[in-house]
Every structure is written in structure tokens, then in C-alpha cells.
Amino acid sequence: MAVHVEVGSNPLDISKLRALININGCGSIVSFVGLTRDFEGESVVKRLEFDAWDDELPKVLTRIAHDSINEFGVSSVVISHRIGAVEPGEEIVCIHVGSEHRKEGFSACSWIITELKNQAPLWKKEIRDDGEFWKSGLG
User: What is the pLDDT of residue 137?
Assistant: First the structure.
């Protein structure tokens, strides 16, 4: 399987997602895991709430994954993103990239998270001790 995309409200199983990478011909797996921080500046973060365009989000993430394979020559991409409430310390997003060499894997993984933040129809509300704040932009 070259591309696997998941979107859901359950906690991420990073190891299970890692096992979905097709390692045939791979010399590296590069991973990115984004977490909910417990502070934003001086304010305590209670949770993040992610809202998504449910029908489009998997399509956008799949397209980004395929584009990374074409652009960087990596062989396999797994992307999983949470929606709903995500507590501090919990994983929000997980990206695994399998590639022949680490350079392409690192480049692709960095590009994927940037494109996810630029393109994915996701909106994030930060629930803090000083109020609720919608974060600007997508992703």
C-alpha cells in the first residue's frame, strides 16, 4: 500500500500506523507526530477542538500524500489526523514516510505537514483558561 489516510476522533496508535508503511525498498522511515501543547504563551490550554469538512478532508490528505510521492520519489505515506477534542499531550496528527533514502523522506514529511496546514479543510479552536480562540487559517 503506497498511501493510507485516516481521519477520526479516537486517539492515534502511532505504532499501528507505522506498521502500514510499505518498507519494500526502503532505507528509512521518517515520522512526524504533532501534539496538543499544554500552554499557549502564558495561558493554560485545556484542549483543542478540531472541526473538519468530513467529506473532503480524506480526499485532500490523499492527494497531498500522492503529490509527495510524485514530487520527492518516496515510496509510501501514511497520514492520520484527529478531529473533535484533543487534550494536552495527545497526538493530533501522525505522518510516516517510507523512502529509499532519508533525505527524500525528511523533505517529503516536512512538505506534507506544511501542505496539510495550508490545504486541509480543518479548523482549530483552542480552549484555554482565558477563553476560547479560533486559530487562523486551515490545518
Answer: 65
Strands (E), the chain: 3-8, 28-35, 39-40, 43-52, 76-82, 84-86, 91-99, 122-128, 131-134
- Give the model's confidence band at 55: pLDDT under 50 very low, under 70 low, under 90 confident, else very high: very high
> CB within 8 A of 31, min separation 6: which ones?
14, 18, 94, 95, 96, 97, 109
Are 98 and 105 a contacting pair, CB within 8 Å? yes
Q: Cell 499557549 appears where?
A: 40
Closest of 12, 58, 48 to residue 31, by C-alpha: 12
pLDDT of residue 139: 60
Distance CA 46, CA 1 (A): 37
